[in-house]
Amino acid sequence: MLDADMSRQDASNAPSPRDAGEPSAMTNAAEPLKLVIVGHVDHGKSTLVGRLLFETGALTEEKLAKLKAVSEKRGQAMEWAFLLDSFQAERDQGVTIDVSRIHFQTARRPYVVIDAPGHVEFLKNMVTGAADAEAALLMVDASEGLKEQTRRHAYLLRLLGVGQVAVVVTKMDLVGYDQARFEAIARDIEAYLAELGLRPNVILPISAREGANISEASAAMAWHRGPTVLEALDGFAPRPAPAFRPLRLPVQDVYKFDDRRIIAGTIAAGSLRQGDTLLFSPSGKTARVQTIETWSAPPKVEAHVNEAVGVTLDRQIFVERGEVASHLEDAPILTNVFRARIFWLDDAPLAVGDVVKIRINTTDAEARVQAIERVIDTESLAGGGAEQVKRNEVAEIVLRARSMLALDEARQSPETGRFVMSRNFRIVGGGVISMEGYPDQRASVTVRSSNLTATESDVDRDLRWRRNGHRGLVVWLTGLSGAGKSTVARETERKLFNKGLNVYVLDGDNVRGGLNANLGFSPEDRTENIRRVGEVAALFADAGVIVLASFISPYRTDRDRARQAAGDAFHEVYVKADLSICETRDPKGLYKKARAGEILEFTGVSAPYEAPEAPECEVDTGRQTPEESAEQLVAYIEQAAALKA
Amino acid sequence: MGVGDRVIPPLKWGGGAKNANVLRQATNPEAAAARRRAAAAILQPSAAAAKSADERAISLEIQTVKPGLSSLCRIVSIAGDVRARYPAAILTRSKGQAMTDLDELEAASIFILREAYNRFDKLAMLWSLGKDSNVMVWLAKKAFYGHVPFPVVHVDTGKKFKEMYDFRDRYTAEWNLRLVTGDCPPVEAMDPTLPPAARSAARKTAGLKQLVETHGYTGIIAGIRRDEEAVRAKERVFSPRGEAAEWDFRNQPPEFWSQYNTDFAPGTSVRIHPILGWTELDIWRYVRREGIPLVDLYFAKNGKRYRSLGDQDITNPVPSDAADLDAIIAELETTKTSERSGRAMDHEAEDSFERLRRDGYM
To answer: Rounded distance, CA B277 to CA B228, Å?
Structure first.
């Protein structure tokens, strides 16, 4: 019997039997809908789950008997919550400390319930449960109304991307099934959710303990004409997979177990086909899909979102974990700095300047907290700047990574636009990404022509410098509009010229009219503007000229790229003046226009300025006259331009 | 660098909270109404503003308001069957078959196995020879295209059924597995305060600890499932253990967005649970679909079969006539008895399984 049975079932060397067609009994099972139940501590979440299990016939006789025994042993009537609060510790404290997953089924479809703890101490467990859910029940105790965790959980649902919420006002038996009480709570929660941009599918009154409005309408609440809990659940829609978005295949690993070199990963969005050209970011390498590999399954020519795939490529390129494969069009954003709305779960606060490990898709990177823009009070939804984000708080921050990252904005692609943070070997938070005010740097890091060979000149840099009697330099003046960059640059130019040095000023006035006439002021165009200036300035310096490049150049990354172009000839000068001073000066009336909303994305007002961290020279135009500043700069340049013996 | 050096405007994106914040200060009702409209517009953009076909499908649904209900009980959203109203293509993909629930489970498990293989140098998979661990081995062969690139470990209590040892020998060869076995200490060496069956089961924990120490494994892949037992339901996919292999369930790391913590302090041993989210029925349906071989003891003989296979002396068969996969699946769809009902140790005391788990039991 054993052997006969084995040979019938053993398919390890044969094609999978899945094509042969399965018996129909259970094969068309709908996918279970993942449901999370959240709310303030003691607002009846576990009780509702217990009751749901009972009323949908999901309880085994054994479990029911065990529950009865445990309840009696503790001298209580049926305590439904015991079903989930299965840890001894929880039963004793009456607090759910972790996430349970329980299955039940209605006539319509199966459900997986994630019971999330309501105590503030256990927010990380709530996050663990809710992040996975397709829909949420937000529980509110009719006798208590909205509480701190009701609001915080609602906020986190929004942040985590759970868009479908039904509000369940429970313990109606404690308020005598009073309609007015229910409607008052319903108004409160609806108003709060509206501010978050969440609209509940339904708000309904129940008593889980009494079984009112769970599977059957309650006679005690005949005034309620809405659905029961089960009807509300069956009204939720499954989360559609992001099939029609651009392809994102984060590379998880590369396998060489045999003669195949397989790039493995799970498709996060979109689809790919055999023969497609894949672009790997951030490396920028491309190759075509030769095969989509399978084992014990029919061969594949295409693969879709959520499938764990392995592909071979038509040529050997070095690709490793962390790269994101896309098609050539609709590639992910490349950047090393981004904004994020985060939740923080670590005991130790997150402070400006802290370095955390982040993981986006399969990319691990270190990132520094460049700024904490605001910490949000989930009670009032107010929030201001702060030095740190404390445990269980929600905040908006700017993160800067050491390396270039391939990512998406969360609003475009939630699955690839979010990340987790870890510190000291623990996941301590998560966040969703926004690029507002920051450019996609893909254009500036992509080398489009690959068939170039640099020709070496017989006249090298040193010869030019020797004849000029000084080195060529890129002196890069950065600062806010109105800080006095151009004034100082022009004055410095005149003084150096009079001393017999080859000097030239590059500024907006002489590059925006020609070289960069096709660029505007969007983050991408600003980046491209600075990239071109950086390259031109480097050529000037190579030719022996001292270039004074005077540009706001608000992004640190852009200036770093200009530094790379010019190498050791680059000198960053921070022309420093407080925003308030610049705004008072306002030589071109631009601040006034920006404040009036006539100029969008104006640095310092509605677009970021990232001050240099370690400039070679700092000129404080807030304290010095332009003349003094120019003299300071001339002295600095004379020293930097001096030829070494 | 001081904060004052930076001039960065506040975040505007996603807008709801900030706008609400600004508007909160206004007290007149018109402002409040405008605030609500603005906020609502964020979740429910016009069809034109929605970013994708998927989102459009949902937002259209959201606008379907059922008339005739009290204003507070509006069933907005998503009543009805989205799948029925929109071509399957919109919700899933343009061509090819939609993934079934088993496809989704398989893909999620493969992702976890690949994470484990990428992140742990000293990795091993527990192979108890039962249905769940055979599914795991099968999933590994899928994940790694016919290879199982880490050893499979059989912690041998010496009290398994003969059929199980036969099965082990056959499939070690057939599946080209690297098998590592380890013995367990005698029951007399176990905590005498545990009830008898739990005490006997604890031998396996001790045997595993020994094996892990001998081979220096840092990651152990185990085939537990959340639906087996309420305590297992609390587990994480990547679950760190302390130095003595104990499980600190009060202070578990968060786990979300399929981003598993795979960085651990040196010396941490980690349990990895690739089939945590499967149910018993999923396992059987997958076994049937894939044609995965199993020990014959699962199939009914003389009105009895084993639903779960442990040691001979602490595992009992359940009454059943289910002699093949279809019959087993049909049986499970209607049963109200739990899978582990044949496992003696689960029924001894309210917390005996929890105590076993805390000490490192699978």
So the answer is: 10
